[in-house]
Amino acid sequence: MSTDELMAGTEIADDRTEDSGFDPVRESILRVTLGLLEENGCLDVTTEAIAAAARVSKATIYRYWRSKQQIIVDATRLRFGPIEPPDLGSFEEEVRWILAKRLGDYRQTGTIRLVAGIIGASTTDDELRAVFDEWIEYLSRAIRRVAQRGIARKDIDPDVDVFALETLIAGVVSRAVVMGRSFSDATIDHIVGLLAAAVRVPPSAD
User: What is the pTM for the complete model shown?
Assistant: First the structure.
């Protein structure tokens, strides 16, 4: 996506500028930054490049953020927010929703490059490590929620190790990053079927 396209995508209706707390300049900088991250990866994005693409001065950027890392953290939150799985009546359907949501995010152009860059940079940068940990917690919290519902409905074994379940599902998401591509809907369905079978309430010994 070109910078001009990114800038066009950041045009905001006039009535939004009147919303409490909304700043169109800040929003534009964040959306341009997100586009640069998706195009170039985390390490190759500089404050100078952000300022040039957003058509603002570096001084304007530093009025909003103390460092490049802080801009990156806020920009990535535009792409990955909390996951709020709806109550769909079954553990299997809710896990499918979670995987489809997160892996659907990864199908957007440049997103896997963005995630891989953040993971790499997070090994030496505490601010970027915090945003990576936040992504993991969003996913884990969603899985815990659907597991609790599943136990309450007797969809899944009440003795299931929820942390192990979180780890399995997070592993599926992580593999998409390693492979550099998302999974098909058919693959997601198969993975969900395997997970559901693994945690199903065991048959009675009667």
Answer: 0.73
In the chain, what is the greatest distance between 2 CA atoms, to the nearest angstrom?
A: 74
pLDDT, tens digit, 9 for 90 and up, residues 116-135: 888 888 888 888 888 888 88
Give, rounded to a whole angstrom, the gap between the first and last alpha carbons of the chain.
62
The Cα–Cα gap between 5 and 45 comes to 18
- Backbone φ and ψ for 156, nearest 5 degrees, come out as -130, 160
Cα distances from 27 to residues 12, 34, 61, 115, 203, in angstroms, run 9, 11, 11, 21, 54
For the chain, what is the radius of gyration of the CA atoms?
20
CA 165 – CA 99 distance, rounded (Å): 13
- Taking 3-state DSSP, the helix, strand and coil percentages for the chain, each rounded to the nearest 5, stand at 70, 0, 30
Calpha distance 184→189 (Å, rounded): 9
CA nearest to 99, candidates 163, 198, 194, 35: 194
| Length of the chain as a residue count | 206
127 contacts 201 by C-beta, under 8 angstroms? no
